[in-house]
Structures are given as C-alpha cells and as structure tokens.
Amino acid sequence: GQSLEQPSEVTAVEGAIVQINCTYQTSGFYGLSWYQQHDGGAPTFLSYNGLDGLEETGRFSSFLSRSDSYGYLLLQELQMKDSASYFCAVRVKNYGQNFVFGPGTRLSVLP
Amino acid sequence: GAVVSQHPSWVICKSGTSVKIECRSLDFQATTMFWYRQFPKQSLMLMATSNEGSKATYEQGVEKDKFLINHASLTLSTLTVTSAHPEDSSFYICSARGGRESTYNEQFFGPGTRLTVL
Lengths: 111, 118
Fold this sequence. Notes:
A: 11 strands; 59% strand; globular; B: seven-stranded mixed beta sheet; four-stranded antiparallel beta sheet
C-alpha cells in the first residue's frame, strides 16, 4: 500500500519562509508532486520531483530525497494569498500511474 | 496551461436519483482521467482511473455499479452517481493527464462538482 505523512497545520507571517515536509511509504515510486488548493477550489499543480534534489519555481521550491523517502515544499516571501492547503502526491508505478495524495497541510499566513 | 472543465459545478438532488458529472479537457487530449472525491478538510481520495476506450479501474472500496464512469473520447469522461444517498454528498473532482511524457507528471484538475443529496 501507499502512505504519506504531512503536518496538518502550519502558521507563518507574511514575508517569512516556511517548509512543509512530506514522508512517504510506497511501492513503485516514480516521483513526488505538490499541489495547492484554496478553500472551495480545485488543486493546482506546483511542482514535480522525479530525481533527487531541489527544483525551484519562483517563490516555491521542492526537494526530494528518494533514499530517505522524503520531500519538502519551501515557500519563500510568503503572501496572504498563499494561505491554502498543500498536498504532496506520490506518482506510483501501477496500471494508471496515478497519484496518491497526502493528507494535506493547511498553511495560514498572518499579516 | 491545460484546461479541464467540469459540469455541473454544483448539484442538489433527492435521494434515490442519479446524477451525471461531466469532465472535459478543453485544449488537449486526455489519455487518462481520474475521479476523486473530497470530504471537507480532507485529502483527495482517488475513486477510479479511466483510459479512453477502456473500462475504468476502480480503487478498493469504490462500488463500480454505483459510480459509473465512461471515458468515451479523449476529451470527455463522465461519472454517474446512481441511486444517490445522503452519504454520497461530497466534492467530486476530475483530473486529466495528457499522453506525452512531458505532461505525464502533471494532472490538470477540473473545478470540482459539489453534490448534495437530500
């Protein structure tokens, strides 16, 4: 089976840096994705790591260590609009090569 | 980026009726579509994976006779909730993935459909 763990909640202030961790146990691992979801909205893709290391996209960066079954999403220069839920998702090798989503981390950015 | 639409965005129905939700990829061909349900403040739970022209593959615990999925074309998948009951009330979200390897790592999500069964 597959299982992922994330902190349930994180709180930070505007302008700060926050790191959201994700650990996973899975068979047939392909890669790790991160999605952002605002209340009432659909998830939107942030990043994907297929190989170890850091991927940077603007204010957001994502890291993967396959040997540690661990990854994180780093958000810099936090803005109020970054308040949302963040999900890590593991892409698995199976019939559909689908993604298994973590429980999500609710980020609250305070002024 | 690729756009996925869902219709309707919300629906209220009586217990025992059936509801059909459409998911369309507007500007790309989706070889694979996924259907999820999400309860408030919870994660996305994959219900089924469908590939165009073949039967959907359901996740364990999802009743295939209750949640009928049809992926008749590369741009359209439908989910029909048959004989809906109040416990089926949820947020249903579809996602689509293209066939090219360059897009394989990303799912494009529809806006979701909020189903309320009275």
